[in-house]
Design a protein that fits this description.
The structure is a homotetramer of 408-residue chains. Chain A is α+β, with helices and mostly antiparallel strands. Chain A folds into two domains: 284 residues, Aminopeptidase, CATH 3.40.630.10; 115 residues, Alpha-Beta Plaits (2-Layer Sandwich). The first copy, chain A, contains eleven helices and 18 strands. In chain A, the strands form five sheets. In chain A, strands 1-2-6-3-7-18-8-17 form an eight-stranded mixed sheet, sandwiched between helices. Chain A has a four-stranded antiparallel sheet with strand order 12-14-10-15, with helices on one face. Chains in contact: A-B, A-C, A-D, B-C, B-D, C-D. At the A-C interface, helix 7 and helix 8 of A face helix 7 and helix 8 of C. Strand 12 of chain C pairs antiparallel with strand 12 of chain D. Chains A, B, C, D: It comes from Corynebacterium occultum. Chains A, B, C, D: Keywords: Hydrolase, Manganese, Metal-binding. Chains A, B, C, D: Pfam families: M20_dimer (PF07687), Peptidase_M20 (PF01546).
Chain lengths: 408, 408, 408, 408
């Protein structure tokens, strides 16, 4: 079978692929600052004779145009996180730092979300496809996307014209290494899979006064507390119990002294939902409650709402998901499993939505014992090198096979 | 009458007293850092031949022992505030700064609470008494107290042995220039006059988690908001409506990001009461509510309470207050008025309480039109030079007269 | 002195007055149903040859026109309370009931607010004045007012034309027997003395649904609880700590079953204040908070507010109060005391306000040991027969003396 | 095929079955008062020669012992609801009433939950099985259960020895007519399908006082409101967003007058969960929050919790559900659909749990247009007579076929 043929070099390339993985692991870079990572990917693609199209500062796409047939895109995100790795791997990226261009401060960086695997597996797969062009037909696009961690990278590639620079994909694919799946397993799911998310900074206005004369002011701390308390009713009362929704107030800051009633308070909220109507309801309800509580408190100015870090819903299309699942079942057998919705968010869907292409996104188990595995973004999150690296590479080849492989 | 005689030099000394006032106004110093102020006071006292007893780093007492008779102490507090003066006086202390020894940072300083008047009036009065020893008999103690603004100075003088270094006063007197009294008026009141106050820093403990998985954590922002909300019931329900009590949460700080539930929250509270039982009830109720709300929320650790800036109740003794009021009525006529309780706090009573002496404390009007006067601690608070300076000097002489003056 | 002369029959009339008191005590009647009481008063007045003017169903005034001079009115309220007396007096009104005309139900009735004393003392005083017309000059009006307990009686007398039927009083007087004053004492106070009060029934609208599907409804119990919680901030934050204000939610009713979210909730509130601006602020704040909380909750209909049992502030005028106090001090000596503001309300001021007359209202001690005395409206409230009955009669004569007595 | 054979009399029996259905529809009876219903069922079974075992007052089981093979039980619940039917069926049970034995009051009754279909379909199926004993082998138990509506009937049958009186079923089956499924469809689902539910009556204790003196009491309305507000955090913060849980406070009652602070408040809560751990967490959290809020409020007595109307989770076993689904798919084709979890509760599982038998429970569509169908318990809930009646009968025969039918 063609899949086997395409993957026939897995053993012979393993050392090189593992070395490359370790390079990426040890050279993590912050979102939109993935210059070295991006250069290394380009170097690898060009060394294999694969065409490279750069999109924006650090985004790039490897393109294999291989005759008639569907256009299939596979995305790998490439950025690291601003934190220090604490894993006990012998190749751990201990002490790596980078100057954050937004703050000017040196900050630790680590691949504690596993994007190093996403890069390496996608490189392995595009090279394998390139080596075995005779077995398949169509176009393969290896999309190396920057800045997934701050929801900026996919938007940036769209802003930089990815839709004009590439043919429209028939399907857009993605994968993520997870601590929650058994090691070596690939997990699929049709429908809502990663939540829509948004952050909102809310500034509410009171009126300062001395703490002994609250009647001369409007207390923004009592107001903010009333808001936080009342926001709990959104999930508890306004959203159907069978829906999944979260409203978290992650920060509350107001005041400087015990006896001075401050002028304002700033709240930072985060919302999650697996349904766009639910997400819209959350935001309508938050704004409604905040505005009305401000009015109840005689707030002298309208509250201000600043939305940021907005992630769309990742909702796998049924048809490509079924195709991928069938292929996975056949190839991986018991290692092809169901994936539960993940309480996290992604900007993965931004690019296929810009193209108007269907998409599916699957999970890749990363730890021999997933019951004790650290979660993504934990300083200890460093998946097992193998079988993760091989399995993630195989998964891409198997996933594209229903579209690209020639009948054998 | 002897009072007139003691005050007979008021015209001839006016220029010198006004110059001295402007010196203090233009050289404000932070609490417990009043080195220049203290040195200037000592220099003035010694130039008049008045004995000086230093108590602590910046506290000092001018002592006139003038034969048999009562011991009367009068307090003047001497520190400025960490803020920039914004008055339009031609002698405004614009741009004055001092390095705060606690933080190492340069900070603006200003006499926006009027302590420069307290110093100058007390110096004028002690010098007048010294010039006319023939008219009175007894001992007069001019207590120049540091650090009233942070409630530390009176405690510091007690810690440095004021009780052992001075004779026990038969009465302890004090005055404060106020924006709320008519210009040139002196206001008295028996009983509760300045509130008991305390600040409390409360740390409450949650359990951090990702914002999308609140169930894995304990949300300290929701907990803190429940506490702030519930604290409102103390004044609204637990304290009799006829009592005066305030519970203010002046600061609330928790969290750093919208989607991370933090580990803890820190609240800073301030309480006010005109009755020690009420003050005690406030603190019992605050601790009760905080502890129980923490338990309701499954808080993993006991909350922590740190009390600071605790001011006692200032409750004028009836007998000396009546004596002073009678003397004021006779001398000032319509300018002797009733004073309402002031929603502020003082460490004035700490020293007389340490001696076991009765006390009374009166107000001095500072602005021609008190209906538009800025409040104490406003950057615009700069009382009219006159008649305030003369009136405050006269008030001291008139107030001590019932105890010290010889029958004429 | 004339006062002594007017009161010279106190001993000889004591038995008759005590019998009459016991009659009223044993024949309590509900508000606006005081038919027997009113008839008995009329009978007594007419037996003494005093002119009677009836005002409304159960109100009446005894008028003595005695030549030139001021017009002085004294009010006695005459209704009982719908409760069963539990005192151990041998003349206790055990088991007395009356059919409540509003509900059609038989209900217990008792004079547990002491209005029986108010009637009896006023009858004694008007008869004494009538017997000694030679000692005084002017007009005395003995106003027997119904329905004080439900705030309806004074309004009813105004509605029935009391202002047109009587000459305008130069001063309007009243007294109330109290458990909080020492037995036999009379207490006066200028300024605010009884609180303004109002009751408000608030209906808030939700949208019913099955308890398992709160998202299909609007939960009025969560809304009502948010309102009650938020109302606490009015007294705690919006009213100066030095003011006296109370907002009580005395009843909260919603729902019939655990698993049905009801359509609405009904709250009954009561407010108290000693200042009309404060009272107005309370009502503005309550309506603001209720309306905004309803909007925050997506309430489908505006809330409804029904005000009832509204009592004005009773605020004694300074000049007549000082006159009465001086007269009390002279006559009663140590039994003339200061009265603290009373946390209760009255419709006493409605009639003098309708006339535009100044007023003063004093307290009368009712129990030998006032520290253990039951409060007004307690089922055990039954003041000592003597000296209360005599003292209340004397107090009226002494109080009117500055206006009516001829120079002796 | 045997299923067809068993169902071959459907046409010929239709008129009789429809008449019987209308009889039950027009003779609804309250829970545990289903005397006429029970007698009619017994009469029908005995007329067909089927053995009847009575269990308790109104419960009964039709038993067909037909040789070797599995024991299969099918449950039909038989009680009506205390409400008036408002459907426009020509056979509507308008004006039917029954005296409620608990209250002694006459109350309307109606089959607005569709139990009349459950009885009729089960009677039709057991008669069909009885008529075609040659096609199957084993034992069939038709369990007619009283009092599902108040969660009492299944417990009552267990208490009356159903486990001893019947052989242990290999599987226990049930169905429910629903407004939420397309007409004529049968819907299945493995796992949690109907929620666990419980009602809790909570009495919280305050301390009464006059509304103007809240400081002398403990306000149970403020306390109750704090509890209701705080309960919202359970679903919003303590339960994972991916779980389904509801905490509803369906009634809140306290107080009688606006100006009297009452002694206590009574809340009635209802909880729902699709997981027994979640249900347990809800109850732990409710008790924790209520107790701690009471302590925060200085409540003078422990709160009291009374649990009632407790329904277990209905969680279909995977293996029998899969068997039934396969049989449905084969027989009904597109009319065999997925069923979403239902936000309602049942005592269906009580009897199979008592036996230790696996169970599955399916839904039966009742309205041609399910998008506009009234919900169960609506006064308008009256499913279409056909195809509902036939389909529910067929469904039972098809469901039992994998266990009972002889190989053909």
């Amino acid at each position: 079978m063609s899949v086997q043929k395409i993957l026939s070099d897995l053993d012979s390339t393993r050392d090189a692929r593992e070395s490359l993985y370790k390079f990426f692991h040890q050279h993590p870079e912050l979102s939109l600052q993935e210059h070295q990572t991006s250069a290394k990917i380009q170097e690898e693609l060009e060394a294999s004779g694969i065409e490279v199209i750069r999109i924006g500062e650090t985004g790039l796409v490897g393109v294999i145009s291989n005759g008639e047939g569907p256009v299939i895109a596979m995305r790998g995100d490439i950025d690291g996180l601003p934190m220090a790795e604490q894993s006990d791997k012998d190749y751990a990226a201990a002490g790596v730092t980078q100057v954050d261009q937004n703050t000017g401060k040196e900050t630790p960086v680590a691949h504690t979300c596993g994007h190093d695997f996403h890069i390496s597996c996608l490189l392995g797969a595009v090279q394998a496809l390139n080596s075995h062009k005779d077995t398949w037909s169509g176009t393969f696009l290896a999309v190396f996307q920057p800045a997934e961690e701050n929801a900026a990278g996919a938007k940036e590639m769209v802003a930089n014209g990815i839709v004009d620079k590439l043919p429209k994909p028939d399907v857009y694919l993605g994968q993520h290494v997870l601590g929650s799946l058994p090691g070596g397993a690939v997990g699929t799911r049709a429908g809502a899979m990663l939540s829509a998310a948004a952050s909102i900074e809310i500034t509410i206005h009171g009126k300062g006064s001395h703490g002994s004369m609250p009647n001369l002011g409007v207390d923004p701390i009592v107001l903010g507390s009333a808001i936080v308390t009342r926001l709990q009713t959104i999930v508890a009362r306004e959203i159907a119990a069978t829906e999944t929704a979260v409203v978290t107030v992650g920060s509350f800051h107001a005041g400087t002294k015990s006896n001075i009633i401050p002028d304002s308070a700033v709240l930072q909220l985060n919302t999650r939902a697996y349904d766009t109507d639910v997400a819209a309801h959350l935001h309508e309800a938050i704004e409604r409650i905040v505005r009305k509580e401000c009015e109840a408190a005689r707030s002298p100015r309208e509250p201000e709402f600043r939305y940021y870090d907005q992630y769309p819903l990742t909702e796998n299309d049924a048809e490509p998901t079924a195709k991928v699942r069938t292929a996975f079942d056949e190839y991986f057998g018991e290692n092809s499993v169901d994936l539960a919705p993940i309480p996290a968010s992604e900007d993965f869907s931004v690019i296929p939505d810009a193209f108007g292409s269907p998409y599916t996104y699957w999970g890749l188990g990363g730890f021999a014992d997933h019951t004790t595995a650290p979660g993504n973004h934990s300083p200890f999150f460093a998946p097992d090198l193998q079988p993760t690296l091989d399995r993630g590479t195989e998964a891409i080849i198997v996933a594209v096979s229903p579209w690209l492989l020639k009948e054998s």
